[in-house]
Design a protein that fits this description.
Layout: E1 2-8, H1 13-26, E2 30-36, H2 40-46, E3 55-61, E4 64-73, H3 78-89, E5 92-97, H4 100-103, H5 108-112, H6 131-140, H7 142-149, H8 155-162, H9 170-187, H10 194-211, E6 217-223, H11 227-231, H12 238-245, E7 253-259, H13 262-267, H14 278-286, H15 291-305, H16 312-328, H17 336-345, H18 352-364, H19 379-390, E8 402-404, E9 416-417, H20 421-435, E10 441-443, E11 455-456, E12 458-461, H21 465-473, H22 480-493, H23 498-510, H24 517-530, H25 534-553, H26 559-579, H27 585-605, H28 608-622, H29 628-640, H30 646-656, H31 663-674, H32 679-683, H33 685-696, H34 700-715, H35 719-730, H36 749-760
Parallel strand pairs: 1-6, 2-5, 2-6
Antiparallel strand pairs: 3-4, 3-7, 8-12, 9-11, 10-12
Helix pairs in contact: 1-3, 1-9, 1-14, 6-7, 7-8, 10-12, 14-15, 14-18, 15-16, 15-18, 16-17, 17-18, 20-22, 20-23, 23-24, 23-25, 24-26, 25-26, 25-27, 26-28, 27-29, 28-29, 29-31, 30-36, 31-34, 33-36
């Protein structure tokens, strides 16, 4: 029996080409592959009809799906090419790495702490890289370390210059890699750890099993780092490896194929480490001799499609510049670093935005894989695919990047009409997925009345991780609706605050899940009865009102929600004065925000009894010894609703600005009174005059103290309001208002009060 160890670079296009060459010439009758041994059933499916990489095999603990490992494959991955070659030639492939049932059973803290007794990181041979980081990189991509030590930006550039252009054959290439990594392992013995030792012991055990069979030529395809360890199998004692593997914990493992993407491949760890340029790697694999020209031509075409200049002549110039940069750096030919630098100086005209577009589309890429129905999946995923197809949303699922639902050139934000049955189903599906925490779509804000409208705008962004989340949520039901209902009720049972429960109830209504609304409302009433925190109750009101209004506009019975508000509001208004007394400024400002939101939403209910109760609470709070900002805001809300007579409002405003109160309390009062409304000053010039006079009379020290708060107050106004207020400052003018009779002028306050009354009345 002949054994040949082929040390590869995971996701290396050059490595994939050389591996394919060796397999084609040597014709092994068995391939031993560095993949978890319990992945055997799924590996047979990778090259099946309808499977389009990039894909990832996910192996997960059936009882705890958070314990999971992804093994991504691209077309330029050597492992994929090995499996494809074996499929074409009818050759058996056996995965020989440590089974997932063992390495997933290792606790996370043990699995990922490489040097638990190690002191703080020490410098390594590579500047800017710690010894620990270097050890990690050696195990995941040792050739990248070699490339970095040799002065290359990435291992593909080094591979191309050192191996592809060296004239050496594929056999010589793999022998050279084996020798290089042997030296690396000898130089950096600390790069090994317990998990690495266990994996290599298991690989050697599987190799020994194959050696006892009747195969003639066995190819061992492993990551370059493991090459020396498996090459040395005949010289290692089987008993030593058995001792290393004895007593390893186990868990029950499930597996599934999920679509992957080039952007996700560029971010992934493990087998994806170092793959920063997937689209460029695909070009290198498909067209090794014309990769530079093809990539640059695609860059020029992309710029033209985006409306920028990008002629063939400019592309040719950029290729020349890239070649020059490579020559200056003693590289055989340009890598992606030289290509992008050449683009920036030519096609992109120095504009980073254009280079970013090219980097996103042609360096990283947006390609997404596809797993056909029926391939190692769960019923929930099948139902989700059916729902996506029936709602005509397939074009956005498993598509990289952000896309507005139903966007057009004339309406780039798109939008759906909930009066359309199919659009309503789209909305229900997206809301149900959000309830399952599969956030494919983000509902975009449209304004305060969006809940009562029939239009929704959704921004969609698919992520490969959704497939794993669907697998996890599959334990809650076999359809999206049943899984969302069960998962929502489980989440609700663990909530203790009223606000998140109200928001969850609204989400259930939006998702078209009426069966879960009654138990959610019961929970709401129970939690509201248990809550005594006034701020928490205030924060809950908007969500309760929104949910009630949404249910009403969709003909859903939300009577129970109104009962919750009926029970909650008396306790809230009774406790409001005490809740706003003896509080710091931060708490006072927070209460102002909550009061403003609650006031706005309660007005939407158009309920006289609730209105009267609320306004009575504001009246009592405005005359209590509460935080000045809360006092000012209550007066403002009462004035807007004409609960306080104009004369009283004018008098209280004037007295609130008394110097006897101190500069800081007055500034806080102004902040509360003006919160959210610059229009008030624009349409009531006497108010502006009072504040202007107060500011002018401040001592310099007081002025410095209150400026930050006043700036915050005015910065909340719209740009138009701030501009008009600036004009009032630079060109002060108080228009004449209608005369109001019966204003006494016995003291200095009365003229200002008279002015205020003219404009408040």
């Amino acid at each position: 029996m002949q054994l040949r160890t082929l040390g590869i670079r995971h996701h290396g296009p050059g490595s994939a080409r050389r591996l394919r060459d060796v397999l084609e010439r040597w014709q092994p009758d068995l391939i031993l592959l560095e993949m978890p041994a319990d992945s055997q059933p799924a590996l047979r499916q990778l090259t099946a009809r309808g499977m389009h990489p990039p894909l990832a095999l996910v192996l997960y603990d059936a009882k705890d799906i958070e314990r999971a490992s992804f093994f991504p494959f691209a077309r330029f991955s050597p492992e994929y090419q090995a499996l494809a070659w074996a499929q074409e030639h009818g050759v058996e492939v056996r995965p020989i790495d440590l089974p997932a049932r063992n390495f997933l059973a290792v606790r996370e803290e043990e699995k990922f702490i490489l040097f638990p007794t190690e002191a703080p990181d020490e410098p390594s041979l590579i500047p800017g890289k710690s010894q620990r980081d270097l050890a990690r990189q050696l195990r995941s991509d040792p050739l990248a370390v070699v490339a970095e030590l040799a002065g290359y930006p990435d291992s593909e550039s080094w591979w191309d210059a050192t191996l592809e252009r060296s004239g050496s054959g594929a056999d010589d290439t793999f022998q050279a890699i084996l020798e290089v990594v042997t030296d690396l392992r000898r130089t950096f013995p600390e790069a090994s750890n317990d998990e690495n030792e266990q994996r290599e012991a298991f690989m050697r055990t599987e190799i020994r099993k194959a050696m006892k069979e009747t195969f003639e030529r066995v190819a061992i395809v492993v990551g370059a780092w493991h090459g020396p360890a498996v090459q040395d199998t005949p010289n290692r004692k089987a008993s030593t490896d058995k001792a290393i593997l004895r007593g390893l914990p186990k868990v029950k493992v499930s597996l599934a194929w999920v679509p992957w993407s080039f952007p996700r491949l560029a971010r992934s760890g493990g087998y994806g480490a170092g793959v920063t340029s997937p689209a460029w790697y695909a070009t290198l694999f498909d067209h090794p001799e014309q990769a530079v020209d093809r990539w640059m031509a695609s860059a020029a075409q992309l710029l033209r499609e985006a409306g920028f200049e990008g002629s063939p002549a400019m592309a040719t110039e950029a290729v020349g510049l890239a070649n020059t940069l490579a020559t200056l750096r003693d590289h055989e030919r340009p890598g992606i670093e030289e290509l992008e630098q050449a683009v920036l100086g030519t096609l992109a005209a120095g504009q980073r935005e254009r280079l970013d577009l090219i980097h996103r589309r042609l360096t990283v890429g947006e390609q997404v894989g596809f797993v056909p129905p029926g391939v190692t999946t769960v019923p929930l995923l099948e139902d989700l695919r059916a729902e996506i197809k029936s709602t005509r949303m397939s074009k956005w699922w498993e598509t990289a990047g952000e896309n507005y639902l139903k966007a057009t050139k004339s309406d780039p934000r798109g939008g759906i009409d909930l009066r359309s049955p199919n659009d309503l189903r789209k909305s229900h599906l997206l809301h149900r997925l959000n309830l399952l925490h599969i956030r494919w779509g983000k509902l975009q804000p449209q304004g305060p009345d969006s809940l009562s409208s029939f239009k929704e705008v959704w921004l969609l962004e698919w992520q490969p991780e959704f497939s794993l989340l669907v697998i996890e949520r599959g334990s809650y039901g076999n359809t999206v609706a049943t899984a969302a209902s069960a998962y929502t009720l489980e989440i609700a049972a663990g909530l203790t605050m009223v606000k998140p429960l109200a928001e969850l109830t609204l989400s259930a209504l939006q998702a078209g899940l009426p069966d879960v609304v009654p138990p959610l409302m019961k929970l709401l009433r129970d939690r509201a009865a248990e809550t005594s925190d006034v701020a928490a109750l205030l924060a809950t009101l908007p969500a309760l009102v929104q949910t009630s209004r949404y249910g009403d506009s969709r003909k859903t019975d939300t009577t129970a929600l109104l009962l919750v508000i009926d029970e909650l509001l008396p306790r809230l208004t009774a406790g409001l004065p005490a809740a706003a007394t003896n509080v710091d400024d931060e708490r006072g400002h927070h209460l102002v925000e909550l009061l403003s939101a609650a006031h706005y939403h309660l007005a939407q209910l158009d309920n006289e009894a609730l209105d009267a109760l609320w306004l009575d609470g504001l009246t009592r709070t405005s005359t209590a010894s509460v935080h000045p900002a809360v006092e000012g805001h209550c007066l403002r809300l009462l004035s807007d609703r004409e609960v306080i007579p104009p004369r009283e409002a004018a008098t209280r405003f004037s007295r609130a600005l008394s110097r006897a109160r101190g500069a800081q309390p007055v500034a806080e009062w102004i902040h509360g009174f003006l919160y959210g409304s610059g229009q008030l000053l624009l349409h009531h010039p006497p108010l502006f005059a009072l504040i202007d006079e107060w500011v002018a009379e401040l001592e310099w020290e007081d002025f410095e103290r209150v400026v930050p708060l006043l700036r915050r107050t005015f910065s909340d106004f719209s740009r138009y309001d701030r501009k008009k207020l600036m004009e009032m400052v630079t060109v002060p003018e108080v228009p004449e208002g209608p005369e109001i009779q019966g204003i006494a002028t016995e003291n200095s306050e009365e003229p200002l009060i008279a002015d205020l009354l003219r404009w408040i009345a």
